[in-house]
Structure to design on (286 residues):
Protein backbone atom coordinates (compact mmCIF):
# COMPACT_ATOMS: atom_id res chain seq x y z
CA UNK A 1 0.00 0.00 0.00
CA UNK A 2 1.20 3.49 -0.81
CA UNK A 3 0.60 6.98 0.58
CA UNK A 4 1.15 10.04 -1.59
CA UNK A 5 1.27 13.43 0.09
CA UNK A 6 1.21 16.86 -1.46
CA UNK A 7 3.70 18.46 0.89
CA UNK A 8 5.66 16.49 3.47
CA UNK A 9 5.88 18.64 6.56
CA UNK A 10 5.32 18.04 10.27
CA UNK A 11 1.88 16.41 10.01
CA UNK A 12 2.54 14.35 6.88
CA UNK A 13 5.78 13.03 8.34
CA UNK A 14 3.96 11.84 11.47
CA UNK A 15 1.41 10.02 9.32
CA UNK A 16 4.17 8.58 7.14
CA UNK A 17 5.96 7.24 10.20
CA UNK A 18 2.84 5.46 11.44
CA UNK A 19 2.01 3.99 8.05
CA UNK A 20 5.61 2.91 7.34
CA UNK A 21 5.49 0.82 10.51
CA UNK A 22 2.45 -0.93 9.03
CA UNK A 23 4.31 -1.71 5.81
CA UNK A 24 3.20 1.19 3.63
CA UNK A 25 5.52 2.84 1.12
CA UNK A 26 5.64 6.64 0.91
CA UNK A 27 5.79 9.21 -1.87
CA UNK A 28 5.52 12.98 -1.73
CA UNK A 29 5.68 16.01 -3.97
CA UNK A 30 8.39 18.65 -3.92
CA UNK A 31 9.12 21.97 -5.61
CA UNK A 32 12.75 22.67 -4.79
CA UNK A 33 15.46 20.13 -5.49
CA UNK A 34 16.74 20.51 -1.93
CA UNK A 35 13.34 19.32 -0.69
CA UNK A 36 13.49 16.36 -3.06
CA UNK A 37 16.85 15.38 -1.63
CA UNK A 38 15.46 15.67 1.90
CA UNK A 39 12.58 13.36 1.02
CA UNK A 40 14.83 10.77 -0.58
CA UNK A 41 17.06 10.81 2.51
CA UNK A 42 13.97 9.94 4.56
CA UNK A 43 13.15 6.99 2.29
CA UNK A 44 10.27 8.84 0.62
CA UNK A 45 9.84 8.68 -3.16
CA UNK A 46 10.21 12.29 -4.31
CA UNK A 47 8.05 13.54 -7.19
CA UNK A 48 8.41 16.98 -8.71
CA UNK A 49 5.25 19.04 -9.01
CA UNK A 50 6.57 20.07 -12.43
CA UNK A 51 6.50 16.51 -13.75
CA UNK A 52 2.86 15.75 -14.65
CA UNK A 53 3.68 12.29 -16.00
CA UNK A 54 5.44 11.23 -12.79
CA UNK A 55 2.61 12.66 -10.70
CA UNK A 56 0.01 10.75 -12.73
CA UNK A 57 2.01 7.54 -12.33
CA UNK A 58 2.36 7.95 -8.56
CA UNK A 59 -1.29 8.80 -8.05
CA UNK A 60 -2.35 5.74 -10.00
CA UNK A 61 -0.59 3.44 -7.53
CA UNK A 62 -1.48 5.41 -4.40
CA UNK A 63 -4.05 3.91 -2.06
CA UNK A 64 -4.30 7.15 -0.10
CA UNK A 65 -3.57 10.79 -0.94
CA UNK A 66 -3.05 13.53 1.64
CA UNK A 67 -2.98 17.26 0.84
CA UNK A 68 -1.33 19.45 3.48
CA UNK A 69 -0.35 22.63 1.61
CA UNK A 70 -2.09 25.86 2.61
CA UNK A 71 -4.19 27.63 -0.02
CA UNK A 72 -2.95 30.77 -1.74
CA UNK A 73 -4.75 33.58 -3.54
CA UNK A 74 -5.52 31.21 -6.45
CA UNK A 75 -6.91 28.46 -4.23
CA UNK A 76 -5.45 25.14 -3.15
CA UNK A 77 -2.16 24.39 -4.94
CA UNK A 78 -2.68 20.70 -4.27
CA UNK A 79 -5.98 20.74 -6.09
CA UNK A 80 -4.54 22.64 -9.06
CA UNK A 81 -1.69 20.17 -9.36
CA UNK A 82 -3.29 16.86 -8.46
CA UNK A 83 -6.68 16.96 -10.15
CA UNK A 84 -5.19 17.08 -13.69
CA UNK A 85 -2.75 14.32 -12.68
CA UNK A 86 -5.58 12.18 -11.28
CA UNK A 87 -7.53 12.58 -14.50
CA UNK A 88 -4.46 12.03 -16.67
CA UNK A 89 -3.64 8.69 -15.07
CA UNK A 90 -7.19 7.55 -14.44
CA UNK A 91 -6.26 7.32 -10.77
CA UNK A 92 -8.85 6.35 -8.19
CA UNK A 93 -7.30 6.26 -4.69
CA UNK A 94 -9.37 4.78 -1.88
CA UNK A 95 -9.01 7.91 0.27
CA UNK A 96 -8.18 11.58 -0.27
CA UNK A 97 -7.61 13.71 2.82
CA UNK A 98 -7.38 17.50 2.99
CA UNK A 99 -5.95 19.20 6.09
CA UNK A 100 -7.89 22.36 6.88
CA UNK A 101 -8.04 24.42 10.09
CA UNK A 102 -10.53 25.28 12.80
CA UNK A 103 -10.00 28.87 11.66
CA UNK A 104 -12.95 28.28 9.32
CA UNK A 105 -15.23 28.67 12.37
CA UNK A 106 -13.96 32.14 13.24
CA UNK A 107 -14.37 33.60 16.72
CA UNK A 108 -17.05 32.03 18.93
CA UNK A 109 -16.15 33.86 22.17
CA UNK A 110 -15.27 30.58 23.85
CA UNK A 111 -18.32 28.67 22.62
CA UNK A 112 -18.29 25.14 21.25
CA UNK A 113 -18.08 24.44 17.53
CA UNK A 114 -19.01 21.26 15.70
CA UNK A 115 -18.61 20.13 12.11
CA UNK A 116 -22.18 21.25 11.49
CA UNK A 117 -21.55 24.76 12.86
CA UNK A 118 -21.87 27.64 10.46
CA UNK A 119 -18.53 28.71 8.99
CA UNK A 120 -17.61 32.26 9.97
CA UNK A 121 -13.98 32.73 8.94
CA UNK A 122 -12.68 36.13 10.04
CA UNK A 123 -9.35 36.27 8.22
CA UNK A 124 -8.23 35.98 4.62
CA UNK A 125 -6.42 32.76 5.54
CA UNK A 126 -9.57 31.29 7.07
CA UNK A 127 -11.68 32.33 4.07
CA UNK A 128 -9.23 30.62 1.73
CA UNK A 129 -9.54 27.44 3.78
CA UNK A 130 -13.32 27.57 3.48
CA UNK A 131 -12.99 27.86 -0.30
CA UNK A 132 -10.42 25.05 -0.47
CA UNK A 133 -12.66 22.74 1.54
CA UNK A 134 -15.55 23.46 -0.81
CA UNK A 135 -13.41 22.90 -3.88
CA UNK A 136 -12.09 19.56 -2.65
CA UNK A 137 -15.57 18.34 -1.72
CA UNK A 138 -16.86 19.39 -5.14
CA UNK A 139 -13.98 17.59 -6.87
CA UNK A 140 -14.69 14.52 -4.79
CA UNK A 141 -18.32 14.48 -5.90
CA UNK A 142 -17.45 15.20 -9.51
CA UNK A 143 -14.73 12.57 -9.79
CA UNK A 144 -16.24 9.97 -7.49
CA UNK A 145 -13.42 10.28 -4.94
CA UNK A 146 -13.69 9.56 -1.23
CA UNK A 147 -12.61 13.02 -0.13
CA UNK A 148 -12.45 13.83 3.58
CA UNK A 149 -11.80 17.17 5.30
CA UNK A 150 -9.96 17.47 8.62
CA UNK A 151 -10.23 20.69 10.61
CA UNK A 152 -7.22 21.10 12.86
CA UNK A 153 -6.37 23.44 15.74
CA UNK A 154 -2.81 24.19 16.91
CA UNK A 155 -0.57 21.18 16.28
CA UNK A 156 2.29 20.38 18.65
CA UNK A 157 4.77 17.56 19.12
CA UNK A 158 8.48 16.81 19.47
CA UNK A 159 10.49 19.73 18.15
CA UNK A 160 7.42 21.94 17.99
CA UNK A 161 6.03 22.60 21.43
CA UNK A 162 5.98 25.07 24.30
CA UNK A 163 9.20 23.47 25.55
CA UNK A 164 11.12 24.83 22.57
CA UNK A 165 9.86 28.37 23.11
CA UNK A 166 10.67 28.20 26.82
CA UNK A 167 14.21 26.97 26.22
CA UNK A 168 14.76 29.72 23.68
CA UNK A 169 13.31 32.38 25.96
CA UNK A 170 10.47 33.14 23.53
CA UNK A 171 7.51 31.83 25.54
CA UNK A 172 4.93 34.38 26.66
CA UNK A 173 2.06 33.83 29.07
CA UNK A 174 -0.52 35.92 27.29
CA UNK A 175 -3.78 36.30 29.15
CA UNK A 176 -7.20 37.34 27.94
CA UNK A 177 -10.37 36.84 29.99
CA UNK A 178 -12.20 33.68 28.91
CA UNK A 179 -9.83 32.91 26.04
CA UNK A 180 -9.08 29.23 25.38
CA UNK A 181 -7.63 27.24 22.50
CA UNK A 182 -7.94 23.66 21.31
CA UNK A 183 -4.83 21.77 20.25
CA UNK A 184 -3.71 18.32 19.12
CA UNK A 185 -0.56 16.25 19.44
CA UNK A 186 0.79 15.44 15.99
CA UNK A 187 0.71 11.69 16.69
CA UNK A 188 -2.98 11.91 17.59
CA UNK A 189 -3.57 13.77 14.35
CA UNK A 190 -1.83 11.01 12.41
CA UNK A 191 -3.83 8.36 14.26
CA UNK A 192 -7.04 10.17 13.31
CA UNK A 193 -6.06 10.09 9.65
CA UNK A 194 -5.26 6.38 9.87
CA UNK A 195 -8.65 5.78 11.49
CA UNK A 196 -10.35 7.63 8.63
CA UNK A 197 -8.50 5.54 6.07
CA UNK A 198 -9.88 2.44 7.75
CA UNK A 199 -13.41 3.88 7.64
CA UNK A 200 -13.48 6.13 4.55
CA UNK A 201 -16.55 8.29 4.03
CA UNK A 202 -16.97 10.46 0.97
CA UNK A 203 -17.62 14.04 1.98
CA UNK A 204 -16.68 13.40 5.59
CA UNK A 205 -15.63 16.35 7.75
CA UNK A 206 -13.92 15.86 11.11
CA UNK A 207 -12.50 18.04 13.84
CA UNK A 208 -9.35 16.41 15.20
CA UNK A 209 -8.39 17.91 18.54
CA UNK A 210 -7.84 16.94 22.16
CA UNK A 211 -10.48 16.89 24.88
CA UNK A 212 -9.46 19.95 26.88
CA UNK A 213 -9.40 23.45 25.39
CA UNK A 214 -7.19 25.56 27.64
CA UNK A 215 -5.70 29.05 27.88
CA UNK A 216 -2.18 29.65 26.63
CA UNK A 217 -0.98 30.92 30.01
CA UNK A 218 -1.94 27.63 31.67
CA UNK A 219 -0.05 25.53 29.13
CA UNK A 220 3.09 27.67 29.36
CA UNK A 221 3.09 27.51 33.16
CA UNK A 222 2.68 23.74 33.16
CA UNK A 223 5.46 23.25 30.62
CA UNK A 224 7.80 25.50 32.59
CA UNK A 225 7.12 23.42 35.70
CA UNK A 226 8.00 20.21 33.85
CA UNK A 227 11.29 21.73 32.73
CA UNK A 228 12.07 23.21 36.13
CA UNK A 229 12.26 26.68 34.61
CA UNK A 230 10.84 29.90 36.03
CA UNK A 231 7.25 30.50 34.96
CA UNK A 232 7.18 33.52 32.62
CA UNK A 233 5.20 36.46 33.97
CA UNK A 234 1.71 36.99 32.67
CA UNK A 235 1.21 39.65 30.04
CA UNK A 236 -2.12 40.98 28.88
CA UNK A 237 -3.19 40.54 25.31
CA UNK A 238 -3.23 44.29 24.87
CA UNK A 239 0.37 44.64 26.06
CA UNK A 240 1.66 41.73 23.98
CA UNK A 241 1.67 43.83 20.77
CA UNK A 242 1.17 40.81 18.56
CA UNK A 243 1.43 40.98 14.80
CA UNK A 244 0.76 38.76 11.80
CA UNK A 245 -0.25 35.13 12.44
CA UNK A 246 -0.01 35.50 16.23
CA UNK A 247 -2.38 38.46 16.15
CA UNK A 248 -4.88 36.50 14.05
CA UNK A 249 -4.52 33.49 16.35
CA UNK A 250 -5.40 35.46 19.48
CA UNK A 251 -8.26 37.26 17.76
CA UNK A 252 -10.38 34.09 18.00
CA UNK A 253 -11.41 31.83 20.84
CA UNK A 254 -13.52 28.70 20.67
CA UNK A 255 -13.87 25.19 22.03
CA UNK A 256 -13.70 22.53 19.33
CA UNK A 257 -15.65 19.30 19.69
CA UNK A 258 -14.08 16.00 18.59
CA UNK A 259 -17.25 13.97 19.26
CA UNK A 260 -17.90 13.09 15.62
CA UNK A 261 -14.41 11.70 15.04
CA UNK A 262 -14.76 9.57 18.16
CA UNK A 263 -18.20 8.30 17.20
CA UNK A 264 -17.63 7.65 13.49
CA UNK A 265 -13.96 6.70 13.38
CA UNK A 266 -13.53 4.98 16.72
CA UNK A 267 -10.64 7.38 17.34
CA UNK A 268 -9.47 8.45 20.77
CA UNK A 269 -6.58 10.83 21.41
CA UNK A 270 -3.71 9.14 23.21
CA UNK A 271 -3.01 12.57 24.69
CA UNK A 272 -6.46 13.85 25.72
CA UNK A 273 -5.01 17.02 27.27
CA UNK A 274 -1.85 19.07 26.88
CA UNK A 275 -0.58 17.55 30.14
CA UNK A 276 -0.22 14.04 28.73
CA UNK A 277 1.08 15.38 25.45
CA UNK A 278 3.80 17.53 27.01
CA UNK A 279 4.83 14.77 29.42
CA UNK A 280 5.26 12.34 26.51
CA UNK A 281 7.36 14.83 24.55
CA UNK A 282 9.63 15.43 27.53
CA UNK A 283 9.99 11.72 28.21
CA UNK A 284 11.01 11.20 24.58
CA UNK A 285 13.68 13.86 24.94
CA UNK A 286 11.78 16.55 23.11
Amino acid sequence: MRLFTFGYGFSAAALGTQLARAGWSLAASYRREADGERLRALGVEAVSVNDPEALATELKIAKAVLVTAAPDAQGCPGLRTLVPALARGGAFPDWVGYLSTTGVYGDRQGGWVFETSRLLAQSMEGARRVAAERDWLDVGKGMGLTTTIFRLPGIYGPGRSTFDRLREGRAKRITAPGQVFSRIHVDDLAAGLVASMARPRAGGIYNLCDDAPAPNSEVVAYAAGLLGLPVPPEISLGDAQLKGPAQRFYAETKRVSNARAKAELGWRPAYPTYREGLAAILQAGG
Residues 240 and 246 are 10 Å apart (CA to CA).
